[in-house]
Design goal:
single chain; about 140 residues; mainly alpha; 5 helices; about 0% strand; transport; membrane; transmembrane helix; transmembrane; MFS_trans_sf
Length: about 140
């Protein structure tokens, strides 16, 4: 996190440092809150689907208990079904996380390239002439 804040602070003029710091902090907090909600929903959906296919009665309630760490083997679910449900939930979480990371990496590549292209000054005749003279 310190390197992220340092990168944000170093990329803006000093008079905009407070804005950059606040933006980084806000994005971090929103990312935690939204990320946990989205990934918990993905885990619960995967676990529910696995428990339903295993024939566990009331799979949604058992998946809720599993995601909260309260699921215990009993008449509602056998240990193998709980284990498979946890793996199915984690599988969905990892797939979703990987897809989001790939989308983020692609966005960074596209946006950074666009910023670099727009920051490159166009060649003028005087610089072109100097390049030809030195070549």
């Amino acid at each position: 996190m310190p390197s992220l804040t340092a990168a944000a602070m170093g990329s803006v003029p000093p008079d905009r440092g407070g804005i950059a710091s606040g933006t980084v902090s806000t994005a971090r907090q929103l990312g935690f809150a939204i990320g946990i909600a989205v990934l918990a929903t993905a885990f619960n959906a995967g676990a529910t689907a696995s428990l339903a296919s295993a024939g566990v009665p009331d799979p949604a309630a058992v998946a809720d208990a599993l995601s909260a760490g309260r699921a215990a083997p009993g008449p509602a679910a056998v240990p193998a079904a709980l284990h498979d449900a946890a793996l199915a939930g984690l599988d969905r979480v990892f797939l979703l996380s990987g897809a989001l990371a790939a989308a983020g990496a692609l966005a960074v590549i596209v946006l950074v390239r666009a910023v670099r292209d727009s920051a490159t000054p166009p060649a003028t005749e005087s610089t072109t002439g100097m390049r030809k003279a030195h070549a």
